[in-house]
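Weekly modeling sync, notes
Attendees: S.R. (lead), two postdocs, one rotation student

Agenda item 3: backlog of single-chain predictions. S.R. asked that every request posted to the team notebook include the full sequence so nobody has to chase files. The rotation student volunteered to paste the first one in as an example of the format we agreed on. Action items at the bottom.

Example entry:
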Amino acid sequence: MSAIRQASPRRVSVAPMMDWTDRHCRSLHRFISRHTWLYTEMVTTGALIHGDVPRHLAFTPAEAPVALQLGGSEPDDLARAAKLGEQWGYDEINLNCGCPSERVQRGAFGACLMNEPQLVADCVKAMRDVVSVPVTVKHRIGVDTVEDYAFVRDFVGTIAEAGCEVFIVHARNAILKGLSPKENREIPPLKYDYAYQLKRDFPQLEIIINGGIKTLDEVEQHLQHVDGVMLGREAYHNPYVLADIDARFYGSTDAALTREEVEAKLIEYCASEIARGTYLGAIVRHALGLYRGVAGARGWRRILSDSRKLAKADLAIFDEAREYLRVPDEILE
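Predicted structure, as returned to the notebook:
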């Protein structure tokens, strides 16, 4: 048990995912797992310096622990944004050095920063100088045709010298030209051994592995080699995969909530959010996978995806959707 207590709080985390891991998504994930480390969507420094800060940074204390992922490449701007993140209560500031989208490239940050390790080190130092929470980096293992392990080893080594102690390694290359962000999550081959080698080469650092991981058995296998595992799309499309994490990886003795209990909490959350003027569909879209694998889940999803019903903001929609559960899909068809 003591080994579990001493383990990284990021032993299991859910990846920052654009358009997905907003505060409603994180609230759902937190109903299912008390300990899984959660990340925001990427927020650019420009959005915080020139935009609506509360809209980008407000979250409920119940979501904690939550890390704020920043996108940017100017040390001063990142320092300002990191300081805001700490003031708003985030538990970690993470720098995105892995996103391959053209929009991010035009801003000269994301994965293209891997080609400028000293700049990343300067960014990390600038943030660390103004915040007391951990500053971490999420990155790929290479860029475009660079396949040599030495590239990512030297990148991590340079940033570690600036004081960064936590690296989240998406174990694929980022292809900056010719592949979409979606293709970049699927086509470049996974090289988990690169992340394992980083841990061997930098045993003092905390190395988190990310990319294509779908089951808790896989999580357990990776934890034989690295300090933590980050789940991505699987946690979004199948959120109940998080249900056993607290007991299995954090030593919790509390019983996990059933899907029905999670749904009940979600309905309470929806009621409070509707009272604040939130569109019901903005919340429910994150929960469509809650009953994945349960008979009738397709019917449940269909009702909760009906924009006309959602527009009425009537929580009876959940009762209607629940009528389909445990009805074999072939009957629905």
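Discussion: group reviewed the output briefly. Strands lie at 12-14, 37-44, 66-71, 92-97, 135-139, 142-143, 166-170, 173-174, 206-210, 228-231.
Action items: rotation student to repeat for the remaining queue; S.R. to check formatting next week.
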